[in-house]
Records
---
Amino acid sequence: MSPDKATARSYLDIDDLSIVLKHQPTHRLLRSVGLHVMPGEVRGLVGESGAGKSMIGKTIFDILPRAVEIVEGSVRLGDDELLKLPQSARRKVIARTSALIPQDPLTALNPVRRIEPQITDRLTRILGVSKSDARERARALLDEVHIRDPESVLRNYPHQLSGGMRQRVLIAAAFAAEPKLIVADEPTTALDVTVQKQILKLIAEMQARHGTALLFVTHDLGVVAKICQNVSVLYGGKIVEDTEVKSLFARPTHAYTQALIAATPRYDRPDESLVPVPAAVIEATQHEIAAADDAWLGARQAGGRR
Amino acid sequence: MSEHARHRRPVSWRLILSGSWLAIVIICAVFAPYIAPHDPLAQDLLLERLPPFWVSGAEPGYYLGTDGLGRDVLSRIIYGARIALTVAFVAATAACLIGSTMGLVAGYFRGWLDQIVSRIVDIWMSFPPVLFSILLVAVIGTGLHSVIIAITAIDWIRFCRVVRAETLVQTRMDYIDSARAAGFSRLNILVREVFPNALPTIVALLSLEMGIAVIVEAILSFVNLSISTDDPTWGGMIAEGRTIIHFAWWVLVFPLIALFLTVLAFSQFGEGLRDRFDPVLR
C-alpha cells in the first residue's frame, strides 16, 4: 500500500475497509472499500438503500452501531490514522477536523435545548472558544445560511423552527468549527422538493466559500450531477465505480452504473417509460461480489493460519 | 415567531387546584402545633365519639368530632399530615434518585450493565408490592425509617423501568450521534443531552410516586406496621374508625378524604408539571 501521488495529497483516505456483523463475522457489510477525498473536493457517494453509504459516514465519525465491527482497513484523516489512535485521541481529531450534516433535521437537534448551545457547544466546550466569541460566530453563521433574525432563532427551541430552518441550523453548526471535511448524510431526503433545492444550493454555496472537502452521501444521481465533481458508486458494500461525475454520465464503466443511469427518469422526456435495472445486471454484480468475498475469506483464513 | 414563543400558556386549573391542596397539607404538616385546635394525643372519655360540628350533639371547638377515646379528629388529621408528607417526600425522592440513575445508566450504556439492571427489575416486579413492603417492615422492624426504606426498596424499579425506556428512545435519536461526532464523551452526552429529555417524565413520576408513598404508608399504618399506635397517622385512624363505623362514621371518613385528596393532588400536580416543562408541548 505505497501511497501514490493522488492519495498522498487527499484529506480523507479510506483503504481496504471491511466491516462485519459481530455475530456473523464472515458476512461483510462493507467490502474492502477504498474512498479518497481531496481537500476542497466535493465527492458524491451514491448507492441504493442498504448499500452501506451511511456505514461509511459512521465509520469516519466513530459512531458505528454496536452490532458491527471493523475487521480490517484504515481510515486516515489529515495526518492521523484514526483506527490506530486510542479512542479519546481519535474523538479529538474527529471533533477538530470534521463535521456531520445529518439526514433527519427533525431528530438531529435536541428538542429540550435552545439552538444557541447546539451550535456553540463544540466551540466552547471542545475547542475552548470563549462564550461571547462563540455566540458571535453562531450569529454570523446563521446569517450565512440565510436565516432572518438570527438573534431570536438562537433563543428558539427546535420545535419552533420548520424542517428547512432546522436543516439550515444544522448546516451552520457543521461549519462552526471550520472543519476540513464535512460529511453530508442524505441531508435533503427528509425535506420536500422545493426546500431540497434551496438546501442543496446552500450546501454548495457554503462549501465553495469555506473550501471544505465535502463527502455527499445520497441515493439521487440527479443531486450528484448538480453539485459533485467526483463520485463513488457503492453496491452491496463494494465500490463499483470511482470516477469524475462528467465521465460517470458519459461513459459509465460498470454494468450496474450503466443500468442505474439508464433507469434515472428524465423530466425532459416525459413520454419515455421507466427502465428498471435489469435482473441480469444485479445478478452479475452479486456474482462479482460473491467472488470477491470468497477471495477475501480465503486470504483471511490463509493469513490466520500463518 | 419568538414573541409568540415567549408567551406562555396560562397556568392550568389542574395545577392550581392540586397545588393549592398540597400547599394546605404542607402548611398543616409544618405548623401543626399552631394550627391544630387540640392536642392530638389528649384523651377525654367524657368527650368520646362527638359528631362533627353540623350534626346535633356536637361540642364547639371539635369541628370534625372526636374518636372512641375522645381525641380530636381534626387535630389528628393535621398531625397525621406530618408523617404522610415525611414519608412521601423522603421515600419518593430516594426511590427517584436510585431508580432514575439506574435507568439512565442501563438505558444509555446497554450491554452487561443493562442486563443486570433489567434482570433485577424483572425479579422485583414478580413480588406483589404491598405484600413485599409488609414483609420488609415485618423483617426490619416497625417505625418511620423502616417504612421509608421499604417504600424506597420497592418503588425504585418504577423509576428505573420508565427512565430506561425513555433513555433508550432518546439514545437512538440523531442528535446523540451528532454530539458524539462533535467529540463529546458518553458521560457528557448522558448528562447534558439525554437527562434533560427524561426530566419531564421523571418529575411527573416523582409526584405520582409521592402519592403512592402516602397510600403505602397508610396501608402499613392500617395493618399497624408503621409507627406506634398512639401517633396519629391517616392509615391508623382509618383502622380505628373501621371498628366503630356504626357509631361514629366521621372517625373513618375524614382521614379517608384527606388521604384521597392528597394522593389525587400529587398525581395531578405531576401531570400538570410535565405539561408545563415539556418544551414540545409548551
---
Amino acid sequence: MATTFEPMVLTQDTVTEPLPAEPDGALYRRLYSYMLKCRMVEERIRVLYRQGRFAGNYFAAVGQEATEVGVTLDLLPEDTIAPSHRNFVTHIMKGTPLPLMFAHIYGRKTSPDQGRSAPAHCGYAPLNIITPSSTIAAQLNIGTGIALAYRMQHRSNVVVALSGEGSTSLGFWHEAVNFAGVRRLPILFVVENNGYAESVPAAIQTAVDDISVKAQAYGIPGISVDGNDVVAVYAAAREAIDRARKGKGPTLLECKTYRWYGHSEIDPAKYRDPAEVAYWKSKDPIAAMELRLESAGLWTEEWKKGLEAEFNREIDEAIAFAESSPRPEGEEALDQVYSFSIRERELEPKVWEPRFTVQRGE
Amino acid sequence: MAVMTYIDAINSALREEMARDSSVFLIGEDIGKMGGAFRATKGLLEEFGEDRVIDSPLAEGVIVSSSIGAAMAGMRPVPEIQFVDFITPAMDAITQQAAKLRYRSAGTQTCPITLRVCYGGSVGGGLYHSQSNTSWFIHCPGLVVVAPSRPYDAKGLLKAAIRDNNPVMFFEHKKLYRSMKEEVPESDYTVPLMKAAIARPGSDITAISYGYTLQLTLQAAEQMKQKHDVDVEVIDLRTLAPMDTDTFLESVAKTSRAVIVHEDNRTLGIGAEVAATIAEQAFDCLDAPILRVTAPDVPLLPAAAELENFCTVSADKIVAALERSMAY
C-alpha cells in the first residue's frame, strides 16, 4: 500500500504575533540569546566534525532551539534533565561549563564521563543531567524514578524529560507517562515533534495529528505548541513546571518543530522534500524572535554582534581546552564497571598448580 | 536465632533494612496489600506505609527503570520481578541502563538498586513460570548477580546487596522458598557478596553449583559418601557475577576433578564459564574432563511432569556425573 506524506501543518502559527504590550524584555532577550548560543555551538560542532577533529557522530538540534531553550530555561541546579541524543545543547541552559561539553565531544579525559559515551551523549552529575543512552525513551522511565524520589524526599524539584515523536511508538514511552500519571509525579514530558524519526515521517509514526492527545489516556494535561515559538514554548513549560513543583503532577508538552539537518552528521536526509526544508527554514525560530524583539525595541544589530563575539570567544576557549586535554589511558576502560576495581581480575589472572603430585589410584 | 524458611529470611532482611535505612523502599507487582505472589513482602505495607511499599503498574520496565532513577536521586530501591519469565520487558532497563550507568558516566551517576527476581523450576510451573535465565545477566558487566541457596545466605546476602553501591540482581529460587528451614540470626548480619562458600568440605572431587541445585548437589555428595566413600567438596558460588573463581580453583587444585551443576540451559550457562576458567587457570590440576549437569538446550520448563523431570537436574543425575568423573 502506498503511503502518502503530507507536510506537517502547524495547529496555530503564532511566530509572527507581536510580543505582549509590556514584554518582559530581560526574559525575552535571554530566550533569544540562549537560542543564538545553542545554534552557534551546534554549527561549530558540525564544522569540527567535518574537519575530522573529533570521532563518532553528532545529532544536531539546529532548527529546534526554541524548544531546547524554552523548556529548560527555568530549571534549578537540583532539577533533572532526562535528555535524548538530540538534547546536547540543553547543557547550556542548565549551566554545564562549555569547556567540559567540548571535552565530551572530543572524548577526552576531562569530559564528565572521561571519554566513555558518544559525542552527543553527555551527562553532568553536578547539575543532574542524566548521561543518555541510545535506547529510545529509556530516559523517560529513569526520569519518572527521579521524580518519584523527589516526591518521597518532599522536595519541590522537577524532571524535564525530552524525547522525539518517534519515541511515542515505544511501549516504554507509554509506561513512563502512565506511571507518572498514576503517581502524579513532578515531571514534564517534552515531545519534540521534529517531523522525522531518523527517516520515518511523523505521519507513519502515529495516526494522530497532535501527540498531546496521548496524554488523555493517562489522565494528565497534554498541550501542543508551536515548537518554533520560543515564547509559546517557554510559557507552556513554565506553567507545567510550576504545576509539577506544586505537586499537581505531570504534563505532556508537544513542541512541533523541524530538524534542519539529517538525523546525524552522516545522514544527508535525502528522504525529505527540499521545499519542505525550505519552508521550515523560513520559520527559523531565531530569526522570528529577532523580528519580534526588534518590533518591541528590544533588539539591535549591535547587540547581536556583541553576543556573537562573546559566544565565539567562549566556544574558541572551550575548543582549545578540549584539544589540549589529555586523552584517557586505554586501561581506564576497565574502571567504573563496578564500585570496586576489576583490573587485577582482568589483567593478572592467577594460575593454579596441583596440590598433590601423587598418582591417583595408588 | 530463629528457625526460618527462605521466604521468611527474605522478609526479615527487607524488614530490617527498611527499618535501618529510610531510603530503602520496595516496588513491584502485587507486593503491597497482597504481600507479593509468594508473600515475600507480607506485612511490610502495614509496617512501612504505601510510600515505601509501592504496588506498581503491570510494567516490569517501569519497576526497574523507576528504581534506577530513584537510586540516582539517593534512594535505595528494592524492586521485585515476580517471575524471571516476565523480566524481558525490563531488559533495556537492566542491561542498557542499570548495568551501564556507572560506566557511561565514569562513576558520577550510579544506581544502587537490588532487583529481587523469583526464578527456577521443579514446581510444575510450565514454560513461563519456571525459567532461570541467570546467564542473561551474568553476561552483562556492571551487574552483580547473586543467587543464595539457603535461608541463612538469603537473609545475609540480601542485606549486603541492599547496602551495596552496585546494581544487584538477587535471584530467589521459588522451590527453596518453603522447602527448607534452618537457624537464622534475628540480629543484624550480612554475608559478603562476590564470595563463594565451601558448602561441604571434601578432598576427592569438586562439585560447583548455586541456588536450588546446590541443595541437590549436597544430597548427591551424601550419596557419594554412602555408596563409594568419596568425599565431594561442594562449592556454593552464591554470587554468579562477578564470580569468585579463587574458591573453586583452589578446590580443584586440591581434588583434581570438577563437576558443575545448574538448572539453566547448558549452552553458555555458568557451567561453561566455570569450565573455561578451570581450563585456563588450573589445567595442570585436572585428572578428568570437566563435566556439567544442566538442563538440555530446550525452552525451560515444559509443564507435564514427565517432560519437566527429563529437563531438571536431580541428585541422581549429579551422582551419575560424579561417578563418571571419579571413574575416569
